[in-house]
Design brief:
Blueprint (H helix, E strand, L loop, with lengths): L16 H16 L11 H24 L4 H6 L16 H12 L5 H4 L19 H7 L4 H5 L2 H6 L3 H6 L3 H13 L5
Bound molecules: zinc ion (ZN).
Protein name: RNase H type-1 domain-containing protein
Length: 187
């Protein structure tokens, strides 16, 4: 202790009304966070798990609300949020994963999207005169009927693109990428 140091007695918090009020408020706040006043006894692993569950639940609610407006195509394909990327274990090139993400989000290099950025004069297919989106290119577009017939796996799966992409069928995804390459369409 240095010379000149003053020793001051500080009263404890027991029976101090305002302290007890603050303590009660703090406990209530903790309970709101799924933690209780006895959380000191919760192992850190369990605490992480509780927090993760809570965050995932909130993320899911946000995702559902946002998807009511934008991104409903992606929501149809993937209705649940996930902390794991669906392609994490896939041994595919970055380029192909990028293409698949574009297809799954409906934001490929197609007139529907290109028009929004003023890279195409309209959102319509030059041949068919209807909206050129992922579904149109993979299933409907007349100019690729012949080429499509060479891809039976694509034809048998083509009820709708959301059905195609709901499954994480790597073989089907490979067929889709090969078909796009075959018809010379970048995505
Ligand atoms: Zn077309």
């Amino acid at each position: 202790m240095r010379p000149g140091t003053t020793i001051q007695w500080i009263p404890g918090h027991i029976d101090l009304v305002n302290h007890d009020k603050a303590d009660t408020q703090a406990k209530m706040a903790c309970e709101k966070c799924l933690l209780t006043a006895t959380s000191k006894s919760i192992p850190i692993g369990d605490l992480e798990s509780i927090c993760k569950t809570k965050l995932m639940r909130e993320w899911q609610v946000d995702y559902e609300n946002i998807s009511l407006g934008k991104g409903n195509f992606h929501f149809e394909i993937m209705p649940q949020v996930s902390s794991q990327q669906w392609f994490k274990t896939w041994k595919s090139s970055r380029r192909n994963i990028t293409k698949l993400i574009r297809l799954r989000t409906g934001h490929g290099l197609l007139n529907k999207t290109l028009f929004l950025y003023k890279f195409a004069p309209s959102q319509l297919c030059d041949v068919c005169g209807v909206l050129e989106d992922v579904e149109h290119i993979l299933i409907e577009c007349e100019q690729y009927n012949e080429e499509r017939s060479a891809f039976p796996r694509l034809l048998e799966s083509s009820t709708s693109v959301s059905t195609m992409f709901k499954t994480l069928d790597r073989d089907l995804y490979r067929v889709i990428l090969t078909f796009l390459e075959y018809i010379g369409r970048d995505i």
